[in-house]
Write a sequence for this structure.
């Protein structure tokens, strides 16, 4: 049996955990890249600080603004880099034992749900809305060439102290820009 293909060309396996409810409470480390890693957000890094373009300033403003559009969601550490965004998005809905028990009984095994509409309040819905808002701003402000990569990277942050390591990675990312594999001057080293 042939596996479905992406745009009729090749198979890309999802990095998402198949049984994970991405609307459930959790801390998520996300990376969102511009299409073809083009430097839309900044022209470079000077003394460890990204020199944001107008698009980069909007990407930052809208990322910070995520909690104003989604209940029980907040943003922890983040950085806007010349061609990508790193951040920690936290979903923290109040729950009681009864609600968790009922929700666990309602998990669907229907395979057709996997590609249906985005689940409200899910990480995918949050990031889709963020990317759409930045894209709309760009197109309204004559930056029609702006585009995101279709997917995003996410990692569930475990309760093992790794959040501090991830925060340091995010905060130190601009200082390590020269070693970044997506930075063209570094590609030939």
């Amino acid at each position: 049996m042939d596996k479905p293909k992406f745009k009729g060309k090749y198979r890309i396996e999802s990095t998402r955990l198949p049984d994970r409810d991405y609307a459930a409470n959790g801390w998520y480390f996300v990376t969102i890249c511009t299409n073809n890693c083009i430097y839309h957000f900044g022209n470079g890094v000077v003394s460890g600080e990204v020199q944001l373009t107008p698009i980069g300033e909007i990407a930052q403003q809208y990322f910070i603004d995520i909690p104003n559009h989604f209940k029980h969601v907040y943003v922890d550490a983040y950085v806007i880099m010349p061609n990508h965004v790193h951040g920690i998005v936290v979903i923290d809905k109040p729950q009681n034992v009864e609600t968790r028990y009922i929700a666990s009984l309602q998990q669907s095994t229907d395979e057709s749900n996997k590609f249906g509409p985005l689940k409200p309040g899910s990480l995918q819905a949050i990031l889709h809305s963020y990317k759409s808002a930045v894209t709309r701003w760009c197109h309204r402000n004559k930056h029609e060439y702006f585009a995101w990569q279709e997917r995003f990277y996410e990692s569930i942050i475990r309760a093992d102290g790794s959040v501090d390591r991830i925060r340091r990675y995010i905060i130190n990312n601009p200082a390590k820009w020269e070693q970044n594999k997506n930075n063209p001057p570094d590609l030939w080293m």
